[in-house]
Amino acid sequence: AQSVTQLDSHVSVSEGTPVLLRCNYSSSYSPSLFWYVQHPNKGLQLLLKYTSAATLVKGINGFEAEFKKSETSFHLTKPSAHMSDAAEYFCVVSDLRTSGSARQLTFGSGTQLTVLP
Amino acid sequence: DTAVSQTPKYLVTQMGNDKSIKCEQNLGHDTMYWYKQDSKKFLKIMFSYNNKELIINETVPNRFSPKSPDKAHLNLHINSLELGDSAVYFCASSQEWAGGRNTQYFGPGTRLTVL
Predict the structure, then answer these.
(1) Measured between alpha carbons, how far is A63 from A80 in angstroms, rounded to an integer?
(2) Pairing state of beta strands A106-107 and A111-116?
(3) What's the pLDDT score for residue B96?
(4) Distance from CA of A94 to the nearest CA of B (A)
(5) Distance CA B115, CA B108 (A)
(6) Of chain B's two ends, which shows fewer C-beta atoms within 10 Å, N or C?
(7) A77: buried, middle or exposed (CB in 10 Å: 19+, 13-18, 0-12)?
(8) CB contact under 8 A, A46 and B105
(9) Does B97 touch chain A if contact means CB atoms closer than 8 Å?
(10) Based on C-alpha coordinates, what's the Rg of chain A?
């Protein structure tokens, strides 16, 4: 079964410093991986996705993530945090198994990012 | 124009009542989903429809029943509401069912509170 582990439930950084949100996944097949962001009382917005093309994926708002198969990781980074980045971030995995209802997105538990002035 | 819309945004109701949440997408997508986000922010898929056909039906109580009148709409009906049903429910859609590779676009969510 596929699974996602977000290693930190809370991350706090100062404005202007780098952001690192960690994600490890488990999948038996070639996974697709996504990062979504949820601002307070808002819906989910796609930041970026990996679907077996380039391993370094660039997303919106200066975020990027690198797919590392050997480490089964898909960490999200940003060189310089902005106050508006404060939100909940979800790492998501989907694999290509075809059995029954197994083809679906599995969400991580989320990482709350706080940006300090 | 809103891509994926849900109504209502907030829903407060008493235990035992029956309620519905509506979802509409204007993206021309074939596949729609319902997710439940609990108080700890964990998102779990409940149902998915592809071209009006149910393709994912996770282990949810049968008090929850999705209805897809056409591929642009996927409504969620909940019978005999319980306290544990309190959560935020998200609707989403994607272009086609391709093993989940295609991006899912989410609605703004419906915050359900059962008293």
Answers:
(1) 9
(2) unpaired
(3) 67
(4) 6
(5) 22
(6) N
(7) middle
(8) yes
(9) yes
(10) 14
pLDDT for the residue numbered B59: 73
Q: Give the number of beta-carbon pairs within 8 Å between A and B.
A: 58
Residue of B nearest to A35 (CA): B103
CB of B41 within 8 A of CB of A88?
yes
Closest-CA distance of chain A to residue B61, Å? 17
The single-letter code of the amino acid at A111 is T
Residues of chain B with Cβ-Cβ distance to A46 below 8 Å are 103-105
- Residues B99, A95: C-beta atoms closer than 8 Å: yes
Distance from C-alpha of A13 to C-alpha of A91, rounded to nearest angstrom: 19
Res A29: pLDDT: 72
Task: Provide the pLDDT confidence category of residue A99 given band limits of 50, 70 and 90.
Answer: very low
Cβ distance A45 to B109 less than 8 Å, yes or no, reads no
**What does the pLDDT look like over B33-62, one tens digit per residue?**
999 998 877 888 888 888 777 777 777 888
- For residue A98, pLDDT over 50 is answered with no
Question: Average pLDDT, stretch A32-43?
Answer: 87
Q: Does B56 touch chain A (CB under 8 A)?
A: yes
pLDDT, greater one: A40 or B80:
B80
Least confident of A21-30, A91-100, A102-111: A91-100
* Maximum Cα–Cα distance across chain B: 39
**A84 three-state secondary structure:** helix
